[in-house]
Design goal:
globular; single chain; mainly beta; 22-stranded antiparallel barrel; disordered N terminus
Length: 675
């Protein structure tokens, strides 16, 4: 594919720098202990960046925050970012056998391409410029082995980040050269003919230059016989989709830093077959598939200059492409089909720049000022039948831009009481201006106790896909008059240290969404369309206990109750589980040699688009890992859905299925070697 050379150019450009600029490794200052080897109390003091755009303690962040470390990823056998997200309190994940979707605090709408969550990599925005979507499954930019930690920041974040920081922000922090000091190779094999390989080189030189270059290849045949009862007819292969679940991707990542400068680039290209026959496509034809790719280059400066000011400046270039092949039958006779491939294509190019200035003033204030500009200079959508001559249904070429400025003050009123107040003003070329505040009062009445009172507003601008997509009246039509969604959230968070090894967190929240953009069927013409609904309200509460002890013992348990409903009718929203429960436990089987990590997750019944309900289900995953089988070799083996539970996720409106069945018991084995 013509887009792939971007990764090659990126690696070729950076690799010589990485190799040529190192000094003698013996002269390198030893790296500090990794974050995953510290105590629970120290873990709570790990600097968190994403909550305020500067580093602060978890207990001082104006949000409900949790952190997943690289050790968690190893011990619980997480394969993708979707696995990591699914394990967090208040989060849940759907999979329709093409993409993974994020649910948080009882909210995940049909047709939602993860556009109400802002996903960052080292502070770089990854939401694309057409769908505003993010990828968390195999289409995510990063191999999870490259992740140092993940920050989960719940609640509205538009006061700093603008659109998409609607229900939360996820910031993925990558490993650096000092975390490798050489080469690393990793290989995996698993169920459904799944194989994955990764090669990474990272180092920190005596001159202070450090960098990482990494590439990953993945291929999975998928389940070769998937049964869907809705297609259980001889004309549609008795409901069996054969060899139509394949998944493959290639990805590359490079990061080079020197003093206050960081240059980072990433690329991913992923193709997934779709076995579910969405959008009324022909069932059991493995040519129906999607290809998604993204790439970016980000240059950042973060340093001090004059009179105590800290300056963070970044500029980036981003590219997204999507190619969808959808097979349709143009003949009404199922015994004599006339198959045509409909091609859906999207290209997006955008560039952005951001400047943030920060200063400690009068000893009690941390002042932050920032401005951002983003130009989406290409937002192209094309839909046509691959016939001769070509039948074109849509050829939409758009562009847009936005500018914004924001300010924030973190004010220590007196010892043990802080006020965080922020405001951001955004101006969009598509709909105009919006201003969104956030206020947090953070009290620490005694050692180990933190009480947070949080209020925030956020918005989500309608995406180019929601505004302009249509396929010529076949299944979907455009919605050019959409307004942005808005949300107001009230939240109370209590965090309590229970000795040096256990910490408890209790959270209660209420939010209300207005002008919700909803994907539905227009009863007038039967076409799918996006519309602004009146409002949605929700409330919920979560309790979590987390403990870490010497020797590698650790555990976490959380329980979430949530209720989300249409504010006009009082009816429960689709795909909104009332209860989420999660339990994690890791323990040494052989001291410092073999560890076992187990997690159990419960998701309660959910309402479907067709008005039915899914069954609640328990899932159990088990991982055995050896961090040092030999000096430089690590092994792990994982079993997912250990007890082979039957369960499914609610389908969206483009599916004939009401529920998409998920995989039964699967396994993965992995070996990693360092050189």
């Amino acid at each position: 594919m013509k887009n792939r050379p971007f990764a090659g150019r990126l690696v070729i450009t950076l690799a010589p720098l990485l190799l040529a600029l190192w000094g003698n490794p013996e002269a390198v200052t030893p790296a500090p202990p990794p974050v995953d080897s510290i105590s629970l109390e120290e873990l709570m003091n790990i600097p968190v960046y994403g909550a305020s755009k500067y580093e602060q303690k978890v207990t001082e962040a104006p949000s409900s925050v949790s952190i997943v470390t690289s050790r968690d990823i190893v011990r619980y056998g997480y394969r993708t970012l979707a696995d990591i997200i699914r394990a967090q309190r208040e989060f849940y994940v759907n999979y329709d056998r093409n993409y993974h979707y994020i649910g948080i605090r009882g909210f995940l709408r049909p047709g939602d391409y993860n556009l109400r969550i802002l996903l960052l990599i080292d502070g770089h925005r990854t939401n694309d410029a057409v769908y505003d979507s993010v990828f968390i499954g195999t289409a995510f930019f990063l191999d999870v082995d490259l992740i140092d930690r993940v920050e989960f920041i719940r609640g509205p974040g538009s006061s700093l980040y603008g659109s998409n920081a609607f229900l939360g922000v996820i910031n993925v922090i990558t490993k650096t050269g000092k975390d490798y000091q050489g080469a690393e190779l990793s290989g995996e094999a698993g169920s459904f003919g799944t194989y994955k390989a990764r090669a990474t080189y990272g180092k920190r030189g005596e001159s202070g230059i450090q960098g990482v270059v990494s590439g990953t290849w993945y291929d999975s045949k998928g389940d070769d016989r998937l049964f869907f009862k809705e297609f259980d007819d001889p004309a549609t292969n008795n409901g069996i989709a054969e060899n139509a679940d394949g998944d493959k991707f290639y990805s590359a990542f490079a990061n080079l830093s020197w003093r206050d400068f960081t240059l980072q680039g990433a690329w991913v290209d992923r193709t997934k077959q779709i076995p579910t026959a969405p959008w009324d496509t022909f069932f059991n034809d493995n040519r129906t598939q999607t290809t998604d790719g993204m790439a970016y280059v980000d240059l950042k400066y973060d340093g001090y200059f004059g009179r105590g000011w800290n300056l963070t400046a970044r500029a980036n270039y981003n590219y997204y492409w999507y190619f969808g092949d959808y097979v349709y039958d143009f003949n009404a006779d199922p015994l004599n089909p006339s198959l045509v491939v409909n091609r859906d294509k999207t290209w997006a190019n955008w560039a952005g720049a951001e400047l943030t200035m920060r200063k400690r003033a009068w000893e009690t204030h941390m002042l932050t000022f920032g401005a951002e500009y983003r130009n989406n200079y290409r937002q192209d959508q094309l839909n046509f039948d691959d016939t001769d001559p070509r039948a074109v249904y849509m050829d939409e070429k758009q562009n847009s831009y936005l500018w914004a400025f924001y300010l924030q003050d973190d004010f220590e009123i007196f010892k043990g009481l802080k006020l965080n107040a922020g405001l951001r003003h955004d101006h969009y070329s598509t709909f105009g201006a919006t201003t969104n505040p956030r206020i947090a009062l953070i009290a620490s009445p005694r050692q180990g106790s933190t009480l947070k009172f949080l209020y925030g507003q956020a918005f989500r601008a309608p995406s180019a896909y929601e505004l302009y997509y249509n396929d010529g009246g076949r299944t979907q039509k455009a919605s050019p008059d959409l307004n942005p969604e808005t949300i107001k959230t009230y939240e109370l968070v209590y965090e309590q240290s229970l000795g040096g090894n256990v910490r408890g967190t209790a959270t209660g929240y209420h939010y209300k969404i207005k002008d919700l953009i909803n994907f539905e069927i227009d009863p007038v013409d039967g076409l799918l369309v996006f519309k602004n609904l009146n409002s949605v309200k929700a409330h919920g509460a979560t309790m979590e206990l987390e403990g870490r002890w010497e020797g590698g013992f650790e555990g976490r348990a959380s329980y979430t109750y949530q209720k989300t409903e249409d504010d006009m009718t009082g009816q429960e929203l689709e795909n909104s589980p009332r209860i989420l429960a999660k339990f994690n436990l890791a323990a040494p089987v052989i001291k410092e040699k073999l560890f076992a990590g187990a997690e159990v997750q419960y998701t309660s019944s959910r309402k479907t688009v067709q008005g039915n309900r899914t069954n609640g289900f328990w899932l159990t995953n088990l991982t055995l890992s050896t961090p040092r089988l030999w000096e430089r070799v690590a092994l792990s083996a994982s079993v997912y859905n250990l007890f082979d539970r039957d369960y499914g996720d609610p389908a969206s409106t483009e599916h004939l299925q009401d529920v998409i069945e998920q995989d039964g018991r699967t396994f993965r084995v992995k070996v990693t070697a360092s050189f």
